[in-house]
């Protein structure tokens, strides 16, 4: 079972997410909270596999929550949720360590798909948000950053797809190569960027404007 915790200051939204999760045979909601002010206490006895994190909450907001999760529960996967599509929130969330980003208006099946995707190693990002990220990159590329890390053309291509939210399997299908080959390239990317996960690689790509 995929164990899920919800952080959202709107009770109706939390209730709707709990109902959605309860209808899935492979998921269970183990807790729901209105903010991140007591996150460590809330989760210490039973850390979730996935957290659905509202980005805009009073008090301790979602970005603060991501940082706390990274510090105290580094194995927990984080999907950010928001009604906004502002660039600053997107980039701050990903840089803080979020593993995916989805709009609240997304239909339930997309939310369920995102949860399963992040558990399977993907980095789910709503297509409209992915386009904004890529537009940001395309407008502010720094070739020196690519040269600095000595990324090959294929590695850069794979990193770009990871930034778009592709899983290893999706990258393999897109580039007509094996998942094993993708994994080897990703290992090389990790070594060159000095990171240890997809989310760190994506964050580094954003921060240094590599792709």
Mind explaining what this structure looks like?
By secondary structure, the protein is α/β, with parallel strands linked by helices. It has two domains: 2-125, Rossmann fold (3-Layer(aba) Sandwich); 140-208, Winged helix-like DNA-binding domain superfamily/Winged helix DNA-binding domain (Arc Repressor Mutant, subunit A), CATH 1.10.10. The chain is built from eleven helices and five strands. α3 links the parallel β3 (50-54) and β4. It is globular. The model has no long low-confidence stretch (mean pLDDT 81).
Share of helical residues: 40-55%
Distance between the termini: 36 Å
In percent terms, what proportion of residues is strand? 5-15%
CATH class of the largest domain: Alpha Beta
- Tally of separate domains: 2
CATH superfamily of the largest domain: Response regulator
Please identify, by name, the CATH architecture of the largest domain: 3-Layer(aba) Sandwich
Report on the biggest sheet.
Answer: 5 strands, parallel
SSE run: EHEHEHEHEHHHHHHH
Quantity of strands, as a count: 5
List keywords for this structure.
single chain, alpha/beta, Rossmann fold, Arc Repressor Mutant, subunit A, 2 domains, five-stranded parallel β-sheet
What's this model, at a glance?
This protein is α/β, with parallel strands linked by helices. Helices cover 55% and strands 13% of the residues.
Give the helices and strands, then pairings.
Elements: E1 2-7, H1 11-22, E2 27-33, H2 39-43, E3 50-54, H3 62-72, E4 77-82, H4 87-96, E5 100-103, H5 108-119, H6 127-139, H7 143-149, H8 153-163, H9 168-175, H10 179-193, H11 198-208
Parallel strand pairs: 1-2, 1-3, 3-4, 4-5
Helix pairs in contact: 3-4, 4-11, 8-10, 8-11, 9-10
């Amino acid at each position: 079972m995929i164990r899920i915790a919800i952080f959202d200051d709107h009770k109706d939204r939390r209730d709707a997410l709990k109902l959605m999760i309860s209808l899935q045979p492979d998921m269970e909601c183990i807790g729901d909270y209105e903010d991140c002010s007591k996150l460590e206490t809330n989760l210490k006895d039973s850390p979730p596999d996935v957290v659905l994190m509202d980005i805009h909450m009073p008090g301790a907001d979602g970005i603060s929550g991501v940082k706390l999760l990274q510090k105290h529960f580094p194995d927990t996967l984080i999907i950010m949720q928001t009604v906004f599509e502002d660039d600053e929130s997107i980039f701050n969330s990903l840089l803080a360590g979020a593993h995916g980003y989805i709009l609240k208006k997304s239909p339930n099946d997309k939310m369920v798909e995102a949860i399963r995707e992040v558990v399977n190693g993907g980095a789910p990002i709503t297509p409209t948000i992915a386009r904004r990220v890529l537009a940001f990159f395309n407008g502010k590329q720094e070739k020196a950053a690519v040269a600095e890390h000595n990324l090959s053309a294929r590695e850069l291509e794979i990193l770009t797809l990871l930034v778009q939210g592709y899983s290893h399997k999706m990258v393999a299908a897109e580039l007509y190569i094996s998942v094993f080959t993708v994994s080897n390239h990703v290992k090389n990317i990790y070594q060159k960027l000095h990171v240890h996960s997809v989310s760190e690689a994506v964050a580094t790509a954003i921060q240094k404007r590599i792709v």
